[in-house]
Amino acid sequence: MNSSVIQETAAVQKPAHELRKYISWLFAVIITVLVAGVVLEVAGRYYIRLRTDQLPVVFGNANWGGLHEYDPDLLWKMLPNQKDYLCPYPVSTNSLGLRSKELRPVEGQFRILALGDSRTFGDAAGNEHTWPALLEQQLNAWVPGNFEVINAGVGGYSAYQGMRFLEKYVCDLKPQLVIACFGTNEWGEVSQGAGGLVDWDDLTRRWGVEVLLREAVKGAAAIVEPSPFGPRRMRMSPGEFTDAYVRMRKLSLQVGAGFAVMYLPSDQEVAQTPRIATIVESLTAGIAGYIGADFLNPKSMFPDHCEHLYADPIHFTPAGNQLIAGYIADTLFRQYQKQAS
């Protein structure tokens, strides 16, 4: 074989060899990227689970699989269509997962939406002895069939969750009045590095890689420009608490509903002499004035000796709920009582 043939053969083999080398390199790159992607996705999923465990929620209030279920917007909500579920007091829910009777068709009745935490939900009271249920009974005793009170209270809820509830349901429920009563679950401490309630993001609906990238960007931004207020300490700050009420007021106005802010005292507050306004009470009253809402505070209605009105330091017996319902009726709906008499 002469030299020219050998050179031609080598010339043909060289590109083929380079092509195989390029394909092998490209294949290796693809495999590396895929493996790295799988590793990052697994790491992201682990991070999602870790962050979920650090959520600033009161998981003790959630009886998973029994009365409550996870909700991507509200963090948790009650299961619908429960019948006398023992907590140990009987709890029933309607088709919306609310501790109320099924909603009546809109036929001109005055519909009140009660937002709140376990005190509105009615811890330690049966279905007919929560303050929303008793308020409906009292108002309809004055004007039969004219009122409907929806109990949207859920154990462990905060003003943030009340705001999110209104965002989801106010247009469907179409209330004439919204009564919001929060201020118990907002102030608990969060673990180091955990976000607050307003930082909540349903990471379970995102890719693990996406979550890692988002958190890396947020972390870098925090390093470059840290918060002037320091690391988060509470589930909600007083400013966030205020903003949630401002938003609830706006959402209520969008459907033409009135809005009232209610404060409910603990047993220690009504037992002390003289009765001094707490920080949360003053904050809540200030918010009501700031947003132009009615402020409800039945504190003055509680007698000095009121052990029979409290089931524990913050929750009410049926008698306590009756006092609250009577106070609301007398404060906001006195004209109906005059009509009935």
In short:
This protein is an alpha/beta fold and 341 residues long. Helix content is 46%, strand content 11%. Helix 1 (3-53) packs across helix 5, helix 4 (159-173) runs parallel beside helix 6 (238-254) and helix 6 (238-254) packs parallel to helix 8.
- Helicity, as a percent range: 40-55%
The biggest beta sheet reads: 5 strands, parallel
Q: What portion of residues belong to β-strands? A: 5-15%
Envelope shape: elongated
Helix-strand blueprint:
Blueprint: H1 3-53, E1 68-71, E2 75-78, E3 85-86, E4 90-91, E5 110-116, H2 118-121, H3 131-142, E6 147-153, H4 159-173, E7 177-181, H5 208-224, H6 238-254, E8 258-262, H7 267-271, H8 279-291, E9 294-296, H9 318-332, H10 334-340
Parallel strand pairs: 5-6, 5-7, 7-8, 8-9
Antiparallel strand pairs: 1-2, 3-4
Helix pairs in contact: 1-5, 3-9, 4-6, 6-8
